[in-house]
């Protein structure tokens, strides 16, 4: 097995939405991770064919340990060979190769980022690494002000619905924008996020908040441009993107 890869075991799984599944992996000799990092998974077929994919870590930041449980959430992609297996066939007790953690820029720490309010902006499953940041804040007993702007197509596409509601009890201010269809009690009609909404739901640029934007490429580019247009320092706007541009 190449250096850096570990054999992890699936110890728990749950449906996170109609098309997404959260996986809890027991990973031996995990070196620890920061909130916002991701890992690589590798599948190997009996004929030797391999496929690798990267997934954001949803677990709160961890230290090193002989064995750590690492949580990810996988969104099923139509026709996706890896996401389809992980959401539909990967069973508790099955093994998979894991490498990580990966990334060191799109991260938040209650120690290194103390004193700065945080804006989290997520498109679809881009909320996963942001949930890691929220969990890290919770576990650290940190009271840094956090605001979340979450854009999804439809109500049933939201991830971590119950958990985000609980985080409101910890002071999280969250706003959800539905782009295709909204529930009857929604405060806005379906549509993409606007400059005015990001200005109202985010933090004023003059207090220099830390901004984390994650989601499909089109969403990330649009939101990061809007934040800069609102006066935010581009150096304070960290982005993580994946997949094709979608609304």
UniProtKB/TrEMBL annotation:
Using the record's annotation, list all stretches that form the FAD-binding FR-type domain. 3-108
SUPFAM superfamilies of this UniProt entry? Ferredoxin reductase-like, C-terminal NADP-linked domain, Riboflavin synthase domain-like
Q: Gene3D superfamilies recorded for this chain?
A: Nucleotide-binding domain of ferredoxin-NADP reductase (FNR) module, Translation factors
Pfam families (UniProt xref): FAD_binding_6 (PF00970), NAD_binding_1 (PF00175)
Mention one GO molecular function.
oxidoreductase activity
Q: Show the PROSITE patterns listed in the entry.
A: FAD_FR (PS51384)
- Which UniProt keywords are given for this protein, alphabetically ordered? 2Fe-2S, Iron, Iron-sulfur, Metal-binding
Name the coenzymes or cofactors required. FAD
Q: Which PANTHER family match?
A: NADH OXIDOREDUCTASE HCR (PTHR47354), PROTEIN RFBI (PTHR47354:SF5)
Protein name in the entry: Ferredoxin reductase
Per the UniProt record, the source organism is Cellulosimicrobium arenosum
**According to the entry, what is the taxonomic lineage of the organism?**
Bacteria, Bacillati, Actinomycetota, Actinomycetes, Micrococcales
């Amino acid at each position: 097995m190449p250096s850096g890869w570990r054999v992890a075991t699936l110890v728990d799984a749950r449906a996170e939405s109609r098309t997404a599944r959260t996986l809890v992996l027991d990973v031996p000799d995990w070196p620890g991770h920061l909130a916002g990092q991701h890992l690589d998974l590798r599948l190997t077929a009996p004929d030797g064919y391999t496929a690798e994919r990267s997934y954001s870590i949803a677990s709160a930041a961890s230290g090193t340990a002989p064995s750590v449980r690492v949580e990810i959430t996988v969104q099923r992609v139509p026709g996706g060979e890896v996401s389809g297996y992980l959401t539909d066939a990967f069973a508790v007790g099955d093994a998979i190769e894991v490498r990580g953690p990966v990334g060191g820029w799109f991260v938040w720490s209650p120690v290194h980022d103390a004193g700065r309010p945080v804006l989290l902006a997520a498109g679809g499953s881009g909320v996963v690494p942001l949930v890691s940041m929220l969990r890290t804040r919770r576990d650290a007993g940190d009271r840094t002000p956090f605001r979340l702007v979450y854009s999804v197509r439809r109500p049933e596409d939201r991830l971590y619905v119950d958990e985000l509601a609980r985080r409101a009890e910890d002071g999280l201010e969250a706003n959800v924008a539905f782009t295709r269809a909204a529930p009857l009690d929604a405060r806005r009609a379906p549509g993409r996020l606007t400059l005015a909404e990001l200005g109202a739901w985010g933090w004023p640029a003059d207090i220099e908040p830390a901004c984390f934007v994650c989601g499909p490429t089109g969403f990330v580019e649009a939101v990061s441009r809007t934040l800069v247009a609102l006066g935010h320092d581009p150096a304070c706007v960290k982005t993580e993107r994946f997949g094709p541009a979608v609304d």
